[in-house]
Amino acid sequence: MIPALDLTFVIPIRLDSQERKENLMTCISFLSLFFKSNILIIEADYKPSVDAKYFLTKNIKYIFVEDKEKVFHRTKYINIAVQNLKTDYIGIWDADVFVSPIQILLSLKSLRDKICEFAYPYDGRFLDIPSNLRREFIKTLDIRLLENNIHLSTPLYGPYACGGGFFANSEEYILCGMENENFIGWGQEDGERVCRWHKLNKRVIRLNGPLFHLNHPRGTNSKFLSENHRIKQINEYYRIETMSKIRLKQEISLWLKKYSTL
């Protein structure tokens, strides 16, 4: 087990299918198998989908927030979770994604060595794993099973994806505005985030190797809700993308003011 108590994985969840619940449990088991780190799970829904007793370990914290809205405001709940952060480094992590432990270790090392402020633990290949391979991986937690069967996976989001998971210097992540809460629901927030980092002249690196996504049904919170929603999300991306650095810093100061009194 690799010591990494200076790292917290933040996993925001709304479990809208049995498959997503299975993926979450697999994700926690996988991370806990290889890393002695902290895991912070934040669930927002009308009632808890998992038994909190499962998370009663020293390094795993579970937060539940009652939320009856149909759409999961993921960006907001990540920001809420970050207020509970006490480690130098953070990993914002989807419950359905996996990479080689070596890729995680090298990402963390790059942050510790101050080579970068933000690190993607994969090279842009975001690969969806089919159901039969998913079941086998859940049983074994052997990442080599996925690596040796890349030809069976389906690439998602093009060759330079930036979703799924990333690592950051916690202080820099907060100073750069954390998550943009103007994004509600699925779509465009991952691209806006990295665009914002670059605009603020932060160092962002990628590690070699793919990211694997365990297949699950795609419900309300895995797609655009409507054409109007799609346009709104895209417009928010371009609003940030076209800002000057000075104007962006002003905007971020307003975002952070919301949490300064917590």
Biggest pleated sheet:
7 strands, mixed
| Rg for CA atoms | 18 Å
- What's the architecture in CATH terms? Alpha-Beta Complex
Shape: globular
CATH-level-4 superfamily name? Spore Coat Polysaccharide Biosynthesis Protein SpsA, Chain A
- Indicate the proportion of strand residues: 15-25%
Mean residue pLDDT: 92
- Element order: H for helix, E for strand: EHEEHEEHEEHHEEHHEEHH
Indicate the structural class: alpha/beta
CATH level 3 topology: Spore Coat Polysaccharide Biosynthesis Protein SpsA, Chain A
Strand order of the largest sheet: 3-2-1-4-9-6-10
- Summarize the amount of helix as a percent range: 25-40%
Spans of at least 5 consecutive residues whose pLDDT stays below 50 are: none
Supply the number of helical segments: 9
Count of DSSP strands: 11
Name of the top-level CATH class: Alpha Beta
For the record, give the distance between the C-alpha atoms at the N and C termini, rounded to a whole number.
35 Å
Number of structurally distinct domains: 1
Description of the structure:
With 262 residues, the protein is of the alpha/beta class. The protein has a single domain (2-257), classed as Spore Coat Polysaccharide Biosynthesis Protein SpsA, Chain A, CATH 3.90.550.10. Helices cover 37% and strands 23% of the residues. The chain has a seven-stranded mixed β-sheet with strand order 3-2-1-4-9-6-10, with helices on both faces. β1, α1 and β2 (35-45) form a beta-alpha-beta unit. α7 packs parallel to α8 (227-241). The protein is globular. The mean pLDDT is 92.
